Amino acid sequence: MPTPTRRLQLTVWGVGLACYLLAVFHRSSLAVAGLDAAERFGISAAQLSTFVMLQLLVYAGMQIPVGLLIDRFGSRSILLIGTALMVVSQAGFALVGSFPLAVAMRVGVGVGDAMTFVCVLRMLSSWFAPRRIPLMTQLTGTLGQSGAIVAAVPMTFALGTIGWTGAYLTAAGVGAVVGLLALVVLADTPEVRRLRGAPMSLTGVRISLAASWAHPGTRLGFWIHFTTQFSSTTLSLLWGFPFLVRGEGRSAAEAGLLLSLIIVAVMATGPLMGVFIGKVPWHRSTLAITVVWSLMATWAVVLLWPGDSPLWLLLVLMVVVGVGGPASMIGFDLGRTSNPAERLASATGIINQGGFVASLLLVVAIGLVLDWRTPGTSTAYTPESFRWAMATQYVLWGVGLLQLWRWRRRTRTLIRAEGGGPANVPGTA
Ligand SMILES: N[C@@H](Cc1c[nH]cn1)C(=O)NCC(=O)O
């Protein structure tokens, strides 16, 4: 294949990244508007959290269909549909006044969001040489997370100045501009603008998914994503603010700054991890396991600390939690090196479900435990109830680590059987 110029590669990557950043922005744009949303739709805090749960549910549930659609219709087409869906739904969210319609619009945003990341990763694997993909993948995941900062700062400003409808319509407008850019610039591969895979019967779909799932590398990728990401997703999307304010006695301003540190840690460590896994692919899972142990240890110190944790400890916690994000991307690299191109997107979709399923389970578990440990129907959760609730993470880490070890052993055995080894991991050269 003719090598595309570096400039063209970077242009395609930049536009794909802009689409993903926009998806993260749309996904996070409700986090700063909680109070306005409660007032606008006349809903309680519990109903507000259904938005987040629904969003995670839709995201996770869409991953396999989206992966299959990409393998069949190409990443460009699916990415454009996803971006258009987010624009229309976000515009609808700006205009509707009832809770059920608002929920329907958030589902639309969630479906569009679910289509974005897997498309961008699939496109990268066609545009860049295999040795560059780990770094480009990390850069995409890392820089894309800044969409959450864009959602936090300018969105708060827009809500305060031009109001709900103006702020969400502006967000939709920005999305439309990025969508147009994607329409003009993106191509599935350097040679083919609109790639189409073979039509798939239901049996074909079943066989392809079963083959991806049967590969130990896909399974290892799934469990890496499952185990490393949920702490940061859950804190960022819902429980971080109440945990820091009610559970750790921090002011609202301190809590906001601490949560922003998660994104700073993502930005700082993502590229380093990309370089590491590109150079020592054999130890991708070792790095993921190290991050999981660090998460477990740091959370243990915070939860066992007598009284409120000191600020330095919460700073460390946010950094370690942030590192979990880039660590989860290791899962995608395992998916890439374990599956052929024609089922790469569906394998990526399977892996991408891991962290979001775990986050959904955790969001629900924290809510249930908080209610269980708080007397009556009060939502004045105590620091003690937050300790119990946050400790539910250890169940997910326990299950995840066991599976991680199991599938890492099998993946390594398979690589050795195929003639590879520590110095020579197939698909990484
Ligand atoms: N693990 C995340 C991305 C990430 C990278 N660094 C921090 N987080 C992930 O799976 N992303 C999928 C998505 O749609 O955001």
Brief description of this entry?
By secondary structure, the chain is mostly helical.
What does this structure look like?
The structure is a single chain. This protein is mainly α and 429 residues long. It folds into two domains: 1-186, Growth Hormone, Chain: A, CATH 1.20.1250.20; 205-418, MFS general substrate transporter like domains (Growth Hormone, Chain: A, Up-down Bundle). 81% of the residues lie in helices and 0% in strands. The chain has 17 helices and no strands. The protein has helices spanning 6-28, 34-41, 45-73, 75-95, 99-127, 133-144, 146-161, 163-185, 202-214, 216-247, 252-279, 284-304, 311-328, 330-338, 344-373, 383-391, 393-417. Helix 10 runs antiparallel to helix 17 (393-417). The radius of gyration is 21 Å and the shape is globular. Bound molecules: the ligand N[C@@H](Cc1c[nH]cn1)C(=O)NCC(=O)O. The ligand N[C@@H](Cc1c[nH]cn1)C(=O)NCC(=O)O binds at residues 24, 117, 141-142, 145, 229, 266, 270, 325-326, 328-329, 352, 355.
What's the total count of β strands? 0
Level-2 CATH architecture of the largest domain: Up-down Bundle
Total number of distinct structural domains: 2
The unreliable regions are: none
What is the N-to-C order of secondary-structure elements (H for helix, E for strand)? Answer: HHHHHHHHHHHHHHHHH
Bound molecules: ligand LKAUPR5Q
Overall SS class: mainly alpha
Helix content: over 70%
Residue-averaged pLDDT, rounded? 92
Biggest sheet statistics: none
Q: So, the CATH homologous superfamily of the largest domain?
A: MFS general substrate transporter like domains
Number of helices: 17
- Report the CATH topology name of the largest domain: Growth Hormone, Chain: A
- CATH top level of the largest domain is Mainly Alpha
